[in-house]
Amino acid sequence: MNDKSIKHENETMCVLDFETTGLIPTTDEIIETCLKIYQKNIQYNSLSKPDKVGKCEPGFHGAYILPKITEITGITNQMIHNKGISQKLLAKDIFEFLQNNDVKYIVAHNGEQFDFIFLKLLFIKYGYDYKKFSFIDTIQLLKNIDKIENVNRPSYSQKNICLGLNIKQQFAHRAYGDVYDLENIIDK
Predict the structure, then answer these.
(1) DSSP, res 57
(2) Counting Cβ atoms within 10 Å, is residue 73 exposed (0-12), middle (13-18) or buried (19+)?
(3) Residue pair 18/48 in contact by the 8 Å Cβ criterion
(4) How many angstroms separate the CA atoms of 135 and 175, rounded?
(5) Can you give the pTM of this predicted structure?
């Protein structure tokens, strides 16, 4: 029996990605979430309504996000209005998904500067304990590997990493697309 076949309790790895109303975790909010258990077909996807109305003019379907966010992600105010859940329910759903799947490690690309901050702030706001999870940022991991191997990479963007590994991105800047791309990066 090799080491890979030994299952350690509470050592499941989950890949995470958020799409948000902007880049500032203390003022912007999550509008799309994808969590996927690494190498398994177990996932959670959701659109979510920000607690605060966005900076754009209110329209028929609300003003959750600026047009620039729609341009980048393809997520519209109408999509959020029709299918989005509350931030409170999102926090509960994420925590339960992580608990129910015995997740110990949460992996995200640029997680230390972005996704993990959003997750931790969401959990703090609604009273969930994020300290039981370990966080792995693939940018930091790649930088450490490159330092050891004396590699000078021009960019650590997920797009650039995918290009360098010949991974074809199909749904970049959608949470589910970025999660699948990151899982492919990890597998390489």
Answers:
(1) P
(2) buried
(3) no
(4) 18
(5) 0.88
